[in-house]
User: What shape does this take?
Amino acid sequence: MSTFFYIILNIANSIDNNLNFLYNTPISEFKEINARAKKGGAILSEPILKVQNLKTVFFTDDGQVPAVDGIDFYINEGEILGIVGESGCGKSVTSLSVMGLVSEPGKIVDGKIHFNGEDITHAPERKMRTLRGNEIAMIFQEPMTSLNPVFTIGDQLTEAIRIHRKISKKQAKDRATELLQLAGLPRPKALLDNYPHQLSGGMRQRVMIAMAMACDPKVLIADEPTTALDVTIQKQILNLMKKLNRETGTAIVLITHDLGVVAQMCERVIVMYAGKIVEEGAVRDIFNHPSHPYTKGLLASVPDLRRQTSRLYSIPGNVPKPGSITEGCLFYPRCQEAMAICAQKRPGLVDLKNGHRVRCFLHGEVEEA
Amino acid sequence: MLAYSIRRLIALIPVLIGMSLIVFGIIRAIPGDPALAILGQKATPEALKQLRHALGLDKPWYTQYFSFITDLLKGDFGTSLRTHAAIRQEIWPHLAATIELSVLAMLIAVVVGVNLGILSAWKQNSVIDVASMVIALVGVSMPVFWLGLMAQWIFSIKLGWLPSIGRENIRDPVTAITNFYIIDTLLAGRIDQFWEIIRHLILPSLALATIPMAIIARMTRSSMLEVLRSDYIRTARAKGQKMFWVVYKHALKNAFIPVLTVIGLQTGLLLGGAILTETIFGWPGIGSYIYDAIQYRDYPVIQSGILLVAFIFVIINLIIDLLYAAFDPRIKYK
Assistant: This one.
């Protein structure tokens, strides 16, 4: 009985969620996205973060696992870029690679990461430390476990500030209070003496955001920041991130599996599949003209209240284990529009228009270099 | 916290009563007779009977137990059957000697063990990791008597660097004030004597520290390995914190609770069970005191001694339990 209610509740949540993001808000959101994309495109020149042909491989006992397999992307100052894909498609490893936090047995084997015009791909740990939390900050999927349980919120926040800013404890505490307030937390002063277990998931994620914003980073990488949260809290957290993006100009790389979130937040989006980019472009292009069968599948999986269906659409099969498919297109086994060529050759990225690119033979016979 | 501590102290009463019964029962169950031990094999039956009567050993066991407990409640540990001295006065110097040795040994064990454990977890599968774990394995498996004898042979006999036996230079005895000789020599302003005491402490404390050090190192390593994989460690690194502080601040405080448990248990064991080390190094501690008493079937000394050690053991456990809350704010005692 309880399982039944749980399922009903989940469906209701998910419908509510996507209804909110896709059908109630998108018109205004899209207008805004368009306006900002135009504005941004005119002003900005050099991207703040540029990743070229990044390859991150895990050297395991069972052989090499290419978690990220030659991806390129960039993000401009003040922009919000979405990276979408199923679990295990390499989204998180991409972000950890940028932070220089890929842990053993993972290793960046190829490609370049440029931050602010500087190559940081193999920068020494000392250099990376001055960037982490200062110029590039990160928030994680699990607010419940991402804060250290044995230190107070105040300790952890002031630490984040004092690592990079030579200021007194008192000043750091004032700044911490300010940050908590900025993150929309009530009674920020009292909160400083609280421990993480005394806070709810949503509050903890707000603390994480406050911590990430401690040193006014140029880029904020948010790895599924709302996945573990209730829908209503999810909305609040996204609004907060958007507000911070507008007010501070921090560029945000938003990693998610939720297209609703992308529609609400981002200007450009990258769709990843099995460690590769399969489609990228402006959000409006991707949503209006999805070109890769995988993107189409993802969009079709979003429940639509206007249609009467008994089952939600899902893409058949699972994401292949990285490195398990050696020939042909990686999506071929699950693809509804597969052709003969797809089984033999690996497609490269095809330019459509306005930076809309897709990795699929349906749009031209371009092989991967 | 205070209420909790008081409740825990009250709960100790049945534990101690149980302990006293067990100790009382066991020493009477083992073969042997104090009167025989005192008078020797050639004593006449009459003399033995007379002595037993004088010592109160001919009374029924419950009368003996009752008088033992009532005396204990009055703070009277009784008198030694062998030396006829008041146990309360006799036992303290021995206990102090053991505490001095154990505390130093535990200090060495914790500092070395925790750091070895941290290093091997931090540099997992590296040469440092393998080396520290080999040290820990050897430390755990080495019998303390063999280790003690080897240490004496090398450092006292071959190299002649350190004294092999005893607690002080017998030609220059320490004037006991607190019976902690490190403190006493400093109180007396005798720096030369203080160094002499330290020299006497080195070998036995190292020998005594080896096993707890190894156990602490292994526990620290496994606990740290688990903690180092947690999300909040990644967060700390993402802040730009130095790895040293990530490990020693963020990880260690989380990993310390199981280590604390081991430290507590090992400290208790050292205080009560250092008999081997004390015997090898001629250390006049509580272990050798009780051991001698057992040889002579000195019932009151055995009873009081073991009960005292048990009491210290449970108190240490209580302190450790209370310390948990200091390391983890999620642990609350009400």
